[in-house]
Amino acid sequence: SVVPAFFLDGFSVLGTHLTWLCVCSVCVATLNIILHLVLKPNQSPKRRSFAHKISRFLKCCIYFFMSCILFHAIIVLYGAPLIESVAETFLFAVLLSTFTSLQCLCLLGPNIQAWIRVFSKNGAMSIWESSLQITSMCSILGAWFGAFPIPLDWDRPWQV
């Protein structure tokens, strides 16, 4: 929260929450991609053609965008405002997708069968996949548990 304050005039975490969500999403996504490129936990020796890499990258981009839309729909179904706060809701969906789907795409790629295997009961076969399970589930549960205090905003007349 200190670094953006040096680069953006008038930046505060509370006052510019949209900017803060963008900064968090970009930082987490960049860190995930850099760590994946440096560590490469499951590099397969076959299929290294340039066309295959481009195809895989485009599929990953489409899956990430679809996960953003899916998380946005789920957040709205759980009670987020549909019209009033579209930007906030979508940026929260992007942040949640960055914490969950982007890591899956970096580690497993656009392979739906691998996703189902990893997230089924006792499906993780390596330490990387176990870490992926724990991080994704904790991100989703943390977002859900973070919504519990919202009804405790005692600013409504019927809550007094």
From TrEMBL:
GO cellular component term, pick one: endoplasmic reticulum membrane
InterPro entries cross-referenced by the UniProt entry: GPI_biosynthesis_protein_Pig-F
Predominant subcellular localization, coarse grouping: endoplasmic reticulum
Classification via Pfam families: PIG-F
Keywords linked to the UniProt accession: Endoplasmic reticulum, GPI-anchor biosynthesis, Membrane, Transmembrane, Transmembrane helix
Pathway stated in the Swiss-Prot or TrEMBL entry: Glycolipid biosynthesis; glycosylphosphatidylinositol-anchor biosynthesis
Single GO biological process annotation from the record: GPI anchor biosynthetic process
Compartments, record wording: Endoplasmic reticulum membrane
Name of this chain's protein: PIGF protein
Gene it is expressed from: Pigf
